[in-house]
């Protein structure tokens, strides 16, 4: 297969599905990974269902790395902010161990597990590959001026630290990979729905716009062994 390959993980969510469509629009062959089927039919899309267990992640990553030699981008779109039982905490007394564990698993462990699973491919490929995870400005420690949202902030800050640390290792191992943490802004999705009433219409982005920006920045990364933590405008976010 001579086509460039784009792997999109969490492909059935609002942003993930939009990223799939954006990659297809640029004539890439898309490997869509999701817990449930993605409602897109296209000759250049291959679907893998994943339950996000450690073994499932390892198996799918190994299969993709073995079958597809020219993976140009791996984009992890998994994320959670609220559950049926819990909303972001406004005070310390609202902190809940189970809610915190859920957000850490989805927002931190799963994206990093995909990076871990793709390492055998990334250390051996000659094809430059951008590996992106969705982060958030709220995960910036230096930018935290408002407080609150303890679990979500911590899960994104932990993700940022893992990727920052990984970038140092990738440089030492001379991996042909670029790490990117992307803050999409407030996107019209299930994740942001309970909070959209407080967002100006000009700051509530469509998934298609976010996907277009994300893809644009994946295409123009500098492979300098640094991790880029940027927003939807391409502007750097402080750690």
UniProtKB/TrEMBL annotation:
Coiled coil: none annotated. Gene3D superfamilies: NAD(P)-binding Rossmann-like Domain (3.40.50.720). InterPro entries: Fungal_SecMetab_SDRs (IPR051468), NAD(P)-bd_dom_sf (IPR036291), SDR_fam (IPR002347). GO terms for molecular function: oxidoreductase activity. Transmembrane segments: none annotated. GO terms for cellular component: cytoplasm. PANTHER family: NAD(P)-BINDING ROSSMANN-FOLD SUPERFAMILY PROTEIN, SHORT-CHAIN DEHYDROGENASE/REDUCTASE. This is Short-chain dehydrogenase.
């Amino acid at each position: 297969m001579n086509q460039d390959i784009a792997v999109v993980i969490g492909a059935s969510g609002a942003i993930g599905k939009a990223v799939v469509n954006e990659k297809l629009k640029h004539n890439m062959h898309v490997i869509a990974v999701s817990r449930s089927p993605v409602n897109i039919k296209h000759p250049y899309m291959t679907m893998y269902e994943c339950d996000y267990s450690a073994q499932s992640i390892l198996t799918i990553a190994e299969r993709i790395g073995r079958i597809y030699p020219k993976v140009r981008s791996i984009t992890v779109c998994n994320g959670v902010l609220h559950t049926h039982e819990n909303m972001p905490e406004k005070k310390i007394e609202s902190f809940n161990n189970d809610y915190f564990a859920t957000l850490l698993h989805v927002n931190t462990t799963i994206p990093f597990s995909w990076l871990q699973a793709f390492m055998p491919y990334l250390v051996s490929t000659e094809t430059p590959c951008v590996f992106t995870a969705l982060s958030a400005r709220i995960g910036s420690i230096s930018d935290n001026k408002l407080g609150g949202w303890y679990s979500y902030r911590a899960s994104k800050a932990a993700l940022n630290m893992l990727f920052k640390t990984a970038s140092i290792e990738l440089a030492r191992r001379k991996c042909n990979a670029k790490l990117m943490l992307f803050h999409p802004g407030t996107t019209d999705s299930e994740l942001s729905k309970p909070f959209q009433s407080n967002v100006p219409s000009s700051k509530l982005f469509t998934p298609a716009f976010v996907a277009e920006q994300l893809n644009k920045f994946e295409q123009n990364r500098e492979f300098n062994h640094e991790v880029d933590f940027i927003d939807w405008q391409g502007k750097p976010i402080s750690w």
